Amino acid sequence: MNIILLGPPGAGKGTQAQMLVTERNMVQLSTGDMLRAARTSGTEMGKIVADVMDRGELVTDEIVIGLIREKLEAGSEGGFIFDGFPRTLAQADALGELLAEVGQSLDKVIELRVDDEVLVDRIVNRAREAVAAGGTARADDNAESLKVRLMEYYKKTSPLIGYYHAKGDLHAVDGLGTIDAVKAEIAALLDA
Ligand code: AMP
């Protein structure tokens, strides 16, 4: 089972993906995590994307498609969860092609629906919690970057909702519920 978790920043994609990894032996492919890892390890690519990420803009399709290609080749027994990818129509097309190349296909696209005000609160909380736990908040978890990230989502990523709806792959869940309620809705879709 290969699925996409689709939704704006703060919708809960990462949280739900992590639970699916633990409970269903799936592999989470988060391009955001991969890009942050590239920055931490100081690779050439990491340096190129740093400013773009901090501003809240999208990095190029070429870079993220390259990251996903490498991971798909490694395979996954329980299936892949695409988290934060695809974010543009070009990435969505590329994903379809990459999956076909490795003899796989996409099973479901799960849209996490949430209101903007909730997103802002969640992101602000995530930053506070990171600091309270003795770490540092993500450089893009601030009001200014969040505004850009939301705009990027509406301009470039939300068209994917129509795209996957037309393909018959789209399933929406209410992302405003508790973590457990959202998890149960996703489980029902996966077990259907
Ligand atoms: P995320 O952790 O998914 O919120 O991603 C953090 C940042 O990484 C985004 O704001 C973008 O700058 C970049 N990024 C992550 N995934 C993608 C993607 N699929 N396409 C373009 N940029 C991405």
Outline:
The protein is of the alpha/beta class and 192 residues long.
Task: Describe the protein in words.
The N and C termini lie close together (12 Å). The chain has helices at residues 13-24, 31-40, 44-55, 61-74, 89-101, 116-132, 143-157, 159-167, 179-191; strands at residues 3-6, 27-30, 80-83, 108-113, 170-174. Helix 4 packs parallel to helix 5. It is built from 9 helices and 5 strands; from the N terminus they run βαβαααβαβαααβα. The protein has 192 residues and is α/β, with parallel strands linked by helices. It has a 5-stranded parallel beta sheet, sandwiched between helices. Adenosine monophosphate binds at residues 9, 31-32, 35, 52-53, 56-59, 64, 84-85, 87, 91, 140, 149.
Q: What's the helix and strand layout?
A:
Elements: E1 3-6, H1 13-24, E2 27-30, H2 31-40, H3 44-55, H4 61-74, E3 80-83, H5 89-101, E4 108-113, H6 116-132, H7 143-157, H8 159-167, E5 170-174, H9 179-191
Parallel strand pairs: 1-3, 1-4, 2-3, 4-5
Helix pairs in contact: 2-3, 4-5
The structure holds adenosine monophosphate.
Adenosine monophosphate is lined by residues 9, 31-32, 35, 52-53, 56-59, 64, 84-85, 87, 91, 140, 149.
